[in-house]
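Priority: medium. Attachment 1 of 2:
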């Protein structure tokens, strides 16, 4: 399944929600969405991985490394993995 990336933000916080797959394409989409957010809002990053069929570890490391370098000094990064497909 091709990745789909959604970006939500509010003052001080960016949430990237990824579904389908986390691969190089998803990483590039996340970085693009992240770069469009004003630097002042880059205090907290939440990456939500939902219902993924595949995760490329290298792509995830690339995203986290990129974001860590560009967040404000008082930064937080949260990685959340959710898979609700198995719940009724």
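Attachment 2 of 2:
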């Amino acid at each position: 399944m091709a990745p789909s990336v959604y970006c939500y933000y509010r003052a001080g916080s960016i949430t990237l929600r990824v579904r389908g797959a986390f691969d190089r394409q998803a990483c590039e989409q996340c970085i693009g969405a992240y770069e469009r957010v004003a630097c002042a809002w880059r205090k907290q990053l939440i990456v939500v991985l939902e219902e993924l069929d595949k995760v490329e570890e290298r792509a995830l490391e690339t995203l986290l490394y990129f974001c860590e370098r560009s967040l404000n000094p008082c930064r937080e990064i949260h990685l959340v993995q959710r898979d609700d497909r198995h719940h009724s």
